[in-house]
Amino acid sequence: MSKKRIAIGALGGTISMTASQSGGVTATLGARELAQGVPGIADMADFSLQTLQKLPSGSIRFEHLFNCLAWAEKEVEKGADGVIITQGTDTLEESAFFLDLFWRHPQPLVLMGAMRSPEEPGADGAANLLASVTVACSQESVNRGVLVVMNDEIHEARHVRKVHSSRVNAFESPVFGLAGVVLEKQVQYFRATVRKPQLAIPASTSAKVLLLEHTLDDDPDILSLAIAHGACQAVVVAGFGSGHVSESLRDVLVVAAERIPVVVCSRTGAGSTTQAVYGYKGAEIDLQKNGVLMGRWLCPRKTRLLLAVALWNNCDREQIKDLLVQWSASH
After folding, report:
1. In whole angstroms, what is the distance from residue 118 CA to residue 121 CA?
2. Gap between the Cα atoms of 240 and 87, Å rounded
3. CA-CA distance, 1 to 19, in Å (whole number)?
4. Would you list the domain boundaries of the chain?
5. What's the pTM value of the predicted model, to 2 decimals?
6. Which UniProt keywords apply (predicted)?
7. pLDDT tens digits, one per residue of 229-238
8. Which CATH code for domain 4-189?
9. What angle do CA 64, 66, 70 make, to 5 degrees?
């Protein structure tokens, strides 16, 4: 059998970082150097290697991800059986979800990185890249959209979260669990992946979505000022518990929801917002009666991305509500 053709694009991040004269590590390695650092990788596939950026992941912008998307689609058009993007882990879950909103191809798009730089003892980058190639080459990965591969674990983009700042098993899918694993150089999936409706690549990305974490006795005037000055065209609130806010913030959100989309999520890190449990002022029943949408199973960060892309596609409130239901569903 002929080898699969896999494209690897490097964005930077810890996996690419080596010691610098100024102290600490910075991004220096490109796609070719990363691939050369993995023993046996050349026997697994034919590779197209491209260094796209050398950035810490906190500096990745939407424009960089759109460039990655365009590059990945060109590689598929040229015959790639799978595409891998290496980047830093700080924003990996967000990049993966953002790309999944647009990725229409059956070929797998795999995102991965490393928790330890190449010069550290126990560096995990080479193993993660090897596992990612295994996933990208597997026929079982077809029609699964965007996947994240870290620590021999396979995660769906909409479920994965970084849950630890530094350990090598920093990534989990705390709500619905792993999609699969790489074991003995083979891919094993635990369930089918149901693709969600992708959105069109927009002509403009000018609309801004504000993400606000609600905290004890905070000041809702900050949000009022942001809305009044046109600093955002939509709002996502990481609310208390299963999607609740204080009475004072509730009053601000109700007024805002008359003008712009407002979504309340849970700030807890796991679980869904409730739909019809709590009836007090500022709880989900009251909020929904007054035009506020609930984020359901999506975390606040991914809800912000979905809402932004929806606005760029000129979606109205009902279309946004449908997207929240579709993209947060467990299946």
Report:
1. 8
2. 32
3. 41
4. 4-189, 209-328
5. 0.96
6. Hydrolase
7. 888 999 999 9
8. 3.40.50.1170
9. 115
Three-class SS string for the chain? CCCEEEEEEEEECHHHEEECCCCCEEECCCHHHHHHCCCCHHHCEEEEEEEEEEECHHHCCHHHHHHHHHHHHHHHHCCCCEEEEECCCCCHHHHHHHHHCCCCCCCCEEEECCCCCCCCCCCCHHHHHHHHHHHHHCHHHCCCCEEEEECCEEEECCCCEECCCCCCCCEECCCCCCCEEEECCEEEECCCCCCCCCCCCCCCCCCCEEEEECCCCCCCHHHHHHHHCCCCCEEEEEEECCCECCHHHHHHHHHHHCCCCEEEEECCCCCCCCCCCCCCCCCHHHHHHCCCEECCCCCHHHHHHHHHHHHHCCCCHHHHHHHHHHHHCCC
Number of other CB atoms surrounding residue 6 within 10 Å: 26
pLDDT tens digit sequence for 176-230: 899 999 999 999 999 999 999 999 999 999 999 999 999 999 989 888 888 888 8
Q: Is 14 a catalytic residue?
A: yes
Q: Which of 14, 89, 193, 303 is catalytic?
A: 14
Which residue in the block uniquely carries the two structure tokens 């197209």? Answer: 48
Domain 209-328 in CATH 3.30.479.30? The answer is no
